[in-house]
Amino acid sequence: MLLDMDMAKSLHDPSTPPAARTGKRERSFELSLPALVKGLDASGRKFEERTSVCGISAQEAQFRLKARLGIDTRVTLFLDIPRTLILESPLRMVLSGAVVYVRLEDTGDKSQFIVVRLDRGFRLHPNSLPPA
Q1: Which whole-number Å values give the CA distances from 64 to 17, 33, 48, 86, 128, in the listed order?
Q2: Is residue 1 part of a domain?
Q3: Pick the residue with more confidence: 90 or 21?
Q4: Which residues are CB-contacts of 14 (< 8 A; sequence separation ≥ 6)?
Q5: pLDDT at 25 over 60
Q6: Which CATH number do you get for residue 108?
Q7: Per the domain annotation, does 2 fall within a domain?
């Protein structure tokens, strides 16, 4: 039986969320990018939490939050894109989507690992504002 490398890795890696295992093969980036996440928590209350995106692709974003979220919860992410050799000025990217995976982390801070399936649209703004 032949398995491609990504499939074999995901079968042996319990940390890979199920949402990331299915669908077309896409380019995913592991990084640490400052972000602000807004939405409604599992109790229906508005929340706003600063975090870091730890992985992103065209379809999904991965991060950790202390706020309790449920599957299908809608969130908005504000990502600060820093200035680089190619990018002359910093940008703020605004993305939205629905939570597709939640895992309680074993850390003492009671955070959750969250995967959000991103909507197709996004907005870019000049980032003259303080970091998210």
Answers
A1: 13, 12, 13, 29, 26
A2: no
A3: 90
A4: none
A5: no
A6: 2.40.10.220
A7: no
